[in-house]
Amino acid sequence: MCDTMVSLASSTANGQTIFAKNSDRPATECQPLILRERETYPSEAQKTLQFVTIPEARTTWRHVGSRPWWCEGYEHGFNEHQVVIGNQGLRSKNPEFTDPKLIGMEILRLGLERGQTAAEAVDAMTSAISEFGQGKFANEEGVRTYDNGYIVADPNEAYVIETAGHEWAVQKVDGAHSISNVYSVETNLHRLSAGAESSAISNGHWKSDRPFNFADAWSDADRSSGSGYTRRCRSGALLDGQSPGIDARSMMATLGDHSDNPDDAPRAEMWDATSICIHWKEEGEGGNTAASLVADLCSDGSRLPVYWCSFYSPCLGVFFPVFIEGLLPQALSIGNQTPDDASPWWTFYQLAIAARRAGPNGVAAVRSKWADLQESFFATAYQVANDAAKLTNAERCADAVQLTTSYMQQNADRVLETARSLIVELTPVATQA
Given 276, 300, 324, which residue is the final one in a domain? Predict the structure, then answer.
């Protein structure tokens, strides 16, 4: 389960595009942040992915991705050109393939590596899908595979891509828009793969005497019920209610929302409903929101884009500002299959356990502590974004990098120190409960 949303300039308070994503994964699947530098390759270079090998691009752009520890692809990420992408799983009518395909998260990485704009990223992603395919396929590694949906955005425009095997459909976004684990691209098509309609007809998924509806033709699930439908209704209602005043704060509240009622105001209180903020039902089992992103882009160069990142449950954590123009603190990239006290992701996993074991008072204590730190980040992040942009525009790029790098390192240290102290503070209470 995942939820991705975007609000273009016409729907936001600051007149800039704002993107948000919750990555919902297995509860103990570590998901660190990874920075990859811009690279140049010879024309004959090949890119070896988990199950297939494809031609490498001549240049791959600098980017940051939120990477499940076992995968070379990402759940969401952003690149040096302010292209930002998030994905979710879908279930198409295609039977399980027997030959290897691309993993959906690898396709997302290709978009970040190869797109200087959202449109370029869409071209790169859909070309790879057409040629190499994706979706559910058998594999001996036990990797869970599925069809995928994406929002691809930049400061000026955004697109939804939905897939079914080698087929795909693209919808251009107007205003504010959200997607979840349910097909939603119907007849308002910006682009369509060459075989999407004919393949659906030949496989008995669609009749040729009707206008083609990609979602109805390819979805293997009821599109008017289920968790994905409920969460998409909820996120859409929150976006509609906040437009045209959507900002980074309201997007964070939406990612931490705990209601399945479209008419509710944003709900921080945890309960057992299907919600945008996903929690395990049994400790460490099932699914949980593993990482979140709110991207506050900038179209005019007056400031740097601010990427607000969070580890594990967004309702029990803090969104810390990241600038791709600087060097990402190395600690943020630590984490793999084994629990590790040096890993920020595993630290926030332990904090979520401690808070929930301690009950409502523990949850309230964590949120209170983070509220002050979050306010301090809001008070400083945009000033740093403005100052670094001025340095960059004055051709003082090294000074801008030093500023953002130092700022991110200080923030990472504060976040980790606070999280670890909260765990110590809550553990005796949790043990007695």
Answer: 300
Are 285 and 382 in the same domain? Answer: no
Per-residue pLDDT, averaged over 41-52, amounts to 96
Cβ atoms within 10 Å of 47's Cβ, excluding its own: 17
Strands 18-26 and 46-48, by their bridges, are unpaired
Of the three residues 300, 318, 352, the one that is the final residue of a domain is: 300
- Confirm if 81 and 116 have CB atoms less than 8 A apart: yes
Per-residue pLDDT tens for 400-423? Answer: 999 999 999 999 999 999 999 999
Residues 95 and 228 in one domain: yes
Q: Is residue 310 part of a domain?
A: no
Cross-sheet strand order for the sheet of 18-26: 176-179, 2-7, 18-26, 287-296, 306-311, 320-322
> Has residue 288 been placed in a domain?
yes
C-alpha span between 16 and 52 (Å, rounded) = 38
Amino acid at residue number 309 = C
- 71 is known as an active-site residue: no
Q: Is residue 323 part of a domain?
A: no
Tell me: do 59 and 194 sit in the same domain: yes
> For residue range 217-273, what is the model confidence (pLDDT) as tens digits?
999 988 999 999 999 999 999 999 999 999 999 999 999 999 999 998 889 888 777
Contact 335, 344 (CB under 8 A): yes
- Domain carrying residue 292: 2-300
Examine residue 328 and state whether it is found in any structural domain, yes or no.
no
188: left (phi over 0), alpha (psi -120 to 50) or beta: beta
Percent of the chain with pLDDT over 90: 92
Model pLDDT for residues 146-189, shown as the tens digit of each residue = 999 999 999 999 999 999 999 999 999 999 999 999 999 999 99
In sequence order, which residues have a C-beta less than 8 Å from that of residue 120 and are 6 or more positions away? 83, 114
Which one of the listed residues 2, 30, 298, 315 is annotated catalytic?
2
271, 379: one domain: no
